[in-house]
Every structure is written in C-alpha cells, then in structure tokens.
Inverse folding.
C-alpha cells in the first residue's frame, strides 16, 4: 500500500516540486514511523512505516487524537512532551510504550521536533517512531539468559563444593576403614601369636625357675645364663603384651576424668625412671580444667608412654615438662573444621596436654614413621616399637589427636595430645 | 600336716609338667588334667584346695569348666584361678568377672607369682571361713 502523505502538495516551483518529491521518497522508504501531529494533538500525517509499526492504515488514523496510541498509564507523557515541543523543544530517543491497533503494547523510541512555517512559528510536530520491541525483547532475553547463566554457575559452584566435600568425606571414610581393617587384622594376628608364644614362654620360665630352684650349687656362669634366659623371656613377653594392648585398644570404658590427676598419677608411675635418668620435672597444670570422658587406664597408659619416651630421649638428664591447658578451637586447621567428618569442630572446648623433653629431638627421617607399629629407635630390648602406635590408637578412639614434633627452639621434642572436654562433648552433641 | 592339693587343668602338657615339677618341689601335691572336658571328674575325685584353669582349650571353654565345677556342691568353695595366654589382662578380667570375680594369672608367670597367688587365695579362704 503506497504511503499517503498528508503534507500539503507543493506549488509549481520546480525546486519545490523536487523538495516535495524528495520528502515523499523519505516518507515512503523510511523504516521509522513518521507522524505529523497538530498542535492540538491530532494526527495529521502517517507514513507507511507508521502503519506497519502501529497497525493502523493512514486513512483510519489521520484525524484521530494521538492519545489513541498511548496506553492509559502513560497518557501524562503527552502533556509533559508536547507543550515543550510547541515552544520549540526537540526530544530525542525517548523510549516508551505505545499501543498497536490490535491492543498489543510495543516498545518505541520517539524523536520529536517542532515544524515551523516561513515565519518561524511552530505549526505542528513531527514525531519519528522507531520500533524497538525486538531490541528490548533481545535485551530482556540477554538479561534473562545472563540471569540463568548466573543461576547455573551458582548451581555448578554449589555442586562442585558438595562434590569436593563428599570426596573428602569418602577419602576420610576410606582411610578410617583401611585403618580399622588393619587394626582388626593385627588384632587377630596378635591374639593368635600371643596364645602360641605365651605358652612356650611360660614353659621356659618355669623350667628356668625350676633349674634355679633345684640346682644344688650353681656356678657364676650358670647363674648368669639363667638370669639372661629369664630376662629374654620377659622381653619376648613384653612384645607380645604390647601387641595385645595394640589389638585390644579398640574398646573403651569411659568415665568423667580429671586430666591433671591422671598426669600426676602418670608421673608417680615413672618416678623411678625419672630419678634414675636425673630428669627434673616441671608441672605446668592449669587448675580447674573441665573433666573429659576417658578410659582412665588406657589414657594413663598414653601419658606414661609419652613420659617414658621423653625420659629415654634424655639419657644424660634433662627437664621433663608436663603441661595441661584448656583451649577453644577458633580456627579451621588440621583436623579442625566445620564438617561432621572433621575430628574437631570449630568452637569446641578441648584439653591440650603437652609432654616436652630437652633431649635430642626427632630425626626428620623418623618423623613420618613415629606411629608405625614396630618402628623404634631404641636399642634392642628397650622398646617394642608399639608404644606410640598404641597411644595413637587409644587417642583416636577417644576422638582426639596426638602429634609429636621437635620444639621450635630445637631443644628437644614435644608430644601434644588434644582431647575433647565434657562440656564440649555435651555442647556439640556429636559424640 | 596334709599337703595343699593343687589341680592344674590346661591342655599344654609341657606347661603343666613344668608347673607340677616346680610346685611339687615347693611341697604342694599336684594333679594334672590336660583334657578340659575331664576337669570336673578329676576335681571331684581329687578334691583340690585350689584349681588353676586354662581359659582357652581345644574342646572346651575354661569358663564352662569353671561353671560346672562351681555348680558341684563338693567343689563350690574351691578357688579357681584362670591361667591365660591368648588374651590381654583386661579381657581376662572382664571374662573372670562374668564367671564370678575369679582371680587370674597371665602366662608367662614365674613360680614365685604362682605361689603368691596360691597363698593369697587360700589365706583369703581361711580368713573367710
């Protein structure tokens, strides 16, 4: 349908004719809607693009008020824009919404300028309307897909985090399983070995005692031989007992315990070794520690073991420091976290026990093997290599940790045992 | 004066032989039974002052043997001391408690420890009766 310009036909002046023809071409070919509006708000002219954008043919709209195209909630725009245009103002790229003939809203960008007569008076307004619905729709779609992308990214991040957590949990569960399986097989082996070895040892010991008892007047060499044989049996027995302790360190009978009292009893048990090795004891026990649910015999065994190790590390004397204090875990760290699988939770109350010596310290090569069963640096007959393995197993069963490291000043080693205090166990309810 | 009679019920012949020799040397009268299943019969016949009883034996559990002996009127007051090789002291203590708070000795053990144990059990018994 050809454009129907309502612009007055020009006179016969060839220049005017050409100008008119040019204007017609512009109106006809423009992709933007061009609308001429009278000062009283009536539509006077309407090009083909305007027909396409608004859906009204020129003959249906020319002579109608501009308000036909304006949604009721935007009708105020007319009184805000047109008086200014009538005074000579120009409006550029004013983005708004208009209504098509079928009632659908369309997004338009309007540029409006006054049209003046030969004397410069504003006679009407020319509005150019660009349909920006597709652009707006595209922008909305972009915004929506960007929102969707962000959502997906958030979901992916959450999934990744959950995956990492579950990976960590699986790893830790697997470690626990492997450790438990190891302990179980060592336990079975130990019980079997103990039964098979303890009976012959018992026979040998009775035989030694019997010979010593019944021999009329043994010479010095015979006495030495019998004494050595008896000691050898005792040594073999202590290895077997260590193994049994290691294998039975899986059941606990816990009661509320005062850690300081346990440390003092431990010191009493090792006092002979302390005196013999000229070791001076410093007790730094924090008073008023909260109680902890512990298997008294087993944890005392841990403390005594650590004290004996400390004494053994100071063959020519030194100082043994036995320290206790309460602590509240405030930061995520090794074995301290926010997950259930972490041994300790942030915010938990714990009791820290430290046993320090002023000995030779731990060789770097030995550090990773300290807790391995049968690993020992002590001379033959002195250690079974099971002490720390048993300690670790007992502490782990109590849900605690044990760490052994050289002191920062390099003058000896420090064993640190961290266990939950009762208040914390109750508070967290996570056992 | 009659000798103190000690019954050893343990499936290890070399162990019971050595312990018998050692205790007889110290003046005790000792009877050995290496088959736990015959423990009760031998005990009824021997009427010991004290019984050493192995916990783990091939055909019978020391705890069951102890329960049978304990249920016999002629033997119910005879102290039973468990001898154990296969389990740790803590487990034995727990097991002993279930059977009735009996004493126990963990192998290997010296003759002196065995004798101290006998004196303690019989001294207690004398004091109690």
């Amino acid at each position: 349908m050809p454009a129907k310009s309502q612009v007055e036909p020009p006179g016969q002046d060839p220049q005017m004719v050409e100008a008119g023809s040019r204007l017609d071409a512009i109106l006809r070919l423009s992709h933007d809607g061009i609308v001429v509006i009278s000062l009283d708000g009536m539509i006077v002219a309407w090009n083909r693009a305007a027909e396409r954008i608004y859906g009204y043919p020129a003959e249906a709209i020319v002579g109608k008020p501009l308000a036909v195209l304006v949604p009721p909630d935007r009708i105020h725009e007319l009184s805000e824009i047109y008086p200014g245009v009538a005074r000579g103002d120009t409006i550029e790229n004013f983005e708004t919404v208009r209504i098509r003939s079928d009632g659908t809203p369309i997004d338009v960008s309007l540029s409006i300028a006054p049209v003046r007569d030969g004397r410069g008076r504003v006679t009407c307004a020319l509005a150019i309307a660009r349909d920006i619905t597709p652009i707006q729709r595209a922008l909305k779609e972009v915004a929506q897909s960007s929102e969707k992308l962000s959502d997906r990214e958030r979901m992916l991040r959450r999934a990744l985090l959950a995956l990492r957590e579950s990976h960590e949990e699986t790893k830790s569960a697997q470690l626990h399983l492997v450790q438990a399986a190891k302990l179980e097989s060592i336990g079975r082996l130990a019980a079997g070995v103990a039964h098979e070895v303890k009976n012959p040892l018992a026979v040998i010991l009775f035989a030694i005692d019997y010979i010593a008892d019944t021999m009329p007047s043994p010479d010095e060499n015979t006495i030495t031989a019998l004494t050595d044989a008896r000691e050898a049996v005792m040594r073999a027995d202590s290895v077997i007992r260590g193994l049994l302790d290691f294998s039975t360190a899986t059941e606990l009978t816990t009661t509320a315990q005062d850690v300081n009292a346990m440390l003092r009893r431990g010191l009493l048990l090792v006092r002979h070794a302390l005196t013999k090795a000229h070791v001076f004891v410093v007790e730094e026990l924090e008073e008023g520690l909260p109680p902890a649910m512990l298997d008294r015999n087993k944890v005392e065994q841990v403390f005594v073991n650590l004290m004996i190790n400390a004494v053994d590390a100071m063959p020519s004397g030194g100082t043994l420091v036995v320290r206790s204090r309460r602590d509240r875990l405030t930061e995520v760290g090794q074995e301290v976290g926010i997950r259930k699988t972490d041994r300790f939770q942030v915010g938990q109350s714990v009791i820290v026990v430290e046993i320090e010596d002023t000995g030779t310290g731990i060789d770097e090569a030995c550090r990773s093997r300290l807790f391995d069963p049968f690993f020992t640096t002590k001379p033959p007959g002195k250690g079974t290599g099971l002490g720390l393995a048993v300690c670790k197993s007992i502490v782990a069963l109590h849900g605690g940790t044990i760490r052994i490291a050289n002191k920062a000043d390099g003058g000896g080693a420090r064993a640190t045992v961290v266990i939950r205090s009762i208040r914390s166990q109750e508070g967290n309810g996570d056992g | 004066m009659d000798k103190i009679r000690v019954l050893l019920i343990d499936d290890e012949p070399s162990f019971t032989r050595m312990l018998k020799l050692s205790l007889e040397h110290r003046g005790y009268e000792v009877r050995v039974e290496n088959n736990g299943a015959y423990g009760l019969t031998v005990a009824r016949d021997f009427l010991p002052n004290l019984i050493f009883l192995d916990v783990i034996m091939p055909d019978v559990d020391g705890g069951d043997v102890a329960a049978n002996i304990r249920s016999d009127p002629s033997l119910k007051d005879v102290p039973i001391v468990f001898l154990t090789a296969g389990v740790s002291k803590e487990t034995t203590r727990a097991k002993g408690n279930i059977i009735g708070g009996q004493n126990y000795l963990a192998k290997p053990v010296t003759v002196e420890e065995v004798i101290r144990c006998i004196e303690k059990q019989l001294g207690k018994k004398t004091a109690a009766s």
Helices of chain B lie at 13-25, 39-46, 62-71, 89-99, 111-128. The first strand of chain B starts at residue 5 and ends at 9. Chain B has one domain: 5-128. Confidence is low (pLDDT under 50) at residues 125-129 of chain B.
